[in-house]
Design a protein that fits this description.
- The structure is a homodimer of 269-residue chains.
- The first copy, chain A, is α/β, with parallel strands linked by helices and 269 residues long.
- The first copy, chain A, is 46% helix and 16% strand.
- The first copy, chain A, has two domains: 2-98 and 215-265, Rossmann fold, CATH 3.40.50.1860; 101-212, Rossmann fold (3-Layer(aba) Sandwich).
- Chain A contains twelve helices and ten strands.
- In chain A, β7 (183-186), α10 and β8 form a beta-alpha-beta unit.
- In chain A, α3 crosses α4 (77-91), α5 (99-109) crosses α7 and α5 (99-109) packs across α11.
- The two termini of chain A are 34 Å apart.
- In chain A, 51% of the residues are buried.
- At the A-B interface, α6, α8 and α9 of A face α6, α8 and α9 of B.
């Protein structure tokens, strides 16, 4: 088993947003090797058909399996909603975790929380994936959703706590303050960048923020412990992308929270 | 020639932004039939390679040529910057106009204007296409550029004159106020939606706003007059897209400024 313990964890997303998941995994599991794949040439997935999303997700899964990963983390809400079953089948014995299940499980585990708020992209909100995942755990929980289309471009512009960011969050979240939600799931991999500013904008100071990136990192740690697959000797981070878009490095480092060396471009088509 | 006079004008863009060009053409030439193509399945073009952009642009050009258009308007800044020559070659005798040339020609035609400001997407600004086009007319004109990545998502969210829009414009444009620009080219097909609010944000009230959509509509009218190809009996608008994304109708009508009937989805792959 020594060999499998030392194998890397594979994490993927349609773009760079999933680097917030990589960041959370590095913090929770600093001795693991990580391979990240961001499909920067084909982002965004949210506007594509389910069939296309499944095709892309399976190409990335196969790429990670060839890299001999011991676990796959789906760090993309769109893929989690549309292609999770196909990825689990393709991965065989390799465990697969996804951000939607992890965030939803975290939300229902909070004691006495009966009303959950979810924010995400238009595609994620319209897919109803969070309400379905939460209701699979507990069908009696009330759920309120709000699409926040501007948060992704704001995060990519680096405007995460200026007046524009705060004003935008007020437009999207002020109704949540009145609605009585007790927790708020950040249902998009870009949103952890707003984790500091959101509590400043919400008038109700008791709303618990649920960061899907931290949730999936915690689930990954628990799963590796269960399977006795924790690595004690790693800590490498390798980043693969399908294209190197403008400002990639600046953006990637903002999401990962540290500097990024040796990014490799691979074509999966 | 009667037949050619009655032929439609073809307009295309990577998405729905080019509907602002269609709107300007309808206003300038209300008796023309128009065929619009928006490549909504493959938007955005700005992050794609030049080779891919050329391939897509030629597919659309061929689609329009099969529709027997008498003129092609490239309503996409990215395509104008990367594929104009290829489209002109493919179009043969059919005249081809593009937003960058039209806006640039308009800017240099203003008397005593020596310093032009250009705002656009990151891809358009980095391509340097506006400075090159303006300097081809007059190499002595000073040009200042500013990328405004958030304006496209703001326009698509419909936030074109709220506090977030104004605050965002201040972040992007306040330096222009100090720089001494005399005119400001709206170098993205989404930006005409901010034409009313931009003068309210600029402290220098003498800056002339140059709307590339209106510029290309005026150029189209002049060209059709020259060629004696003006239609007196048309006025139809047909819209083709490669995918019908979420909120398409709401968005499209905001950009076109009127209701939209019978949108047809076609696959060019």
């Amino acid at each position: 088993m020594q060999n499998l313990k030392n194998a890397p964890i594979g994490i993927f997303d349609s773009g760079i947003g999933g680097l917030t998941v990589a960041k959370a995994v590095i913090e929770a599991l600093p001795n693991e090797d990580i391979i990240y794949f961001g499909d920067t040439a084909r982002v965004p997935y949210g506007i594509k058909s389910e069939e296309t999303i499944r095709t892309y997700a399976l190409q990335i899964t196969n790429f990670l399996l060839k890299k001999k990963v011991k676990m796959i983390l789906i760090a993309c809400n769109t893929v989690s909603a549309s292609a999770k079953e196909e990825i689990i089948r393709a991965a065989g014995d390799i465990p697969v975790l996804d951000v939607i299940s992890a965030g939803s499980r975290n939300a229902v585990s909070l004691p006495n929380h009966r009303h959950v708020g979810v924010i995400g992209t238009l595609a994620t909100v319209n897919s109803n994936a969070y309400p379905e995942a939460i209701h699979a755990f507990d069908p009696t929980i009330k759920i309120s959703q709000q699409a926040c289309p501007l948060l992704v471009p704001l995060a990519e512009e680096g405007w995460i706590d200026n007046e524009v960011a705060k004003q935008t969050l007020h437009y999207y979240l002020d109704e949540f303050d009145e609605s009585g939600i007790q927790s708020l799931i950040l249902g998009c991999t870009h949103y952890p960048l707003f984790k500091e500013v959101i509590p400043k904008v919400l008038k109700n100071g008791n709303i618990e923020i649920i960061d899907s990136a931290e949730s999936i990192a915690a689930s990954a740690k628990t799963k590796l412990e269960e399977l006795d697959l924790l690595n004690q000797t790693g800590g490498d981070f390798q980043c693969f992308v399908s294209d190197r878009p403008q400002r990639f490095h600046e953006l990637a480092e903002r999401f990962l929270g540290k500097s990024l060396n040796g990014v490799e471009v691979v074509n999966l088509d």
